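DM from R.C. (forwarded with permission)

"hey, sorry to bug you on a friday — could you get me a structure for this? deadline for the figure draft is monday and I only need the backbone to look sensible"
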Amino acid sequence: MTWTAPEATRTDGSFVAGEREMLTGYLGWFRSTLLQKCAGLTGEQLAERTVQPSNLSLLGLVRHMAKVERIWFRQRFAGQTMEPMYDPRKGKDADFEDLDPARAAEDYARLVEECRLADEVVAGASFDETFIHDDEVYSLRMVHIHMIGEYARHIGHADLVRERLDGVTGA
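My reply, with the result:
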């Protein structure tokens, strides 16, 4: 039986919440929006590159965001040491290029799990907590802002890929 990406429930963000609720709410909204862009598609469809000559596909975006979630929250902020998510010998774009539609369910689940683990490591942390990366000081607040921007950019890509794939458009 062919796996199909499930429907995703989009979380809401508040227009009047305090800083933490607002930033985590909008990050959650963007995360769930990417999953919604994948809803109803098979692994083969998710892996299809519809905007040539770009290497973008919905599956590549899912894999990329799983990697980015892990790097920014668990590795950089929490200081956890772990192996790279994708084989570094395959290049920096392995998340976009080394696709296997048969592993789409695994890749999708990995993104969902990385988001859960990211939320877990920041649950009790202050947005003022900092870490150093490439000789620069970053706050947890900045990580949230960066991730919202990262998702926003890639959801724009996902819109184009999805529309070219099957004509589906929308929020």
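R.C.: lifesaver. Residues 94 and 148 are 23 Å apart (CA to CA).
me: no worries. The mean pLDDT is 95.
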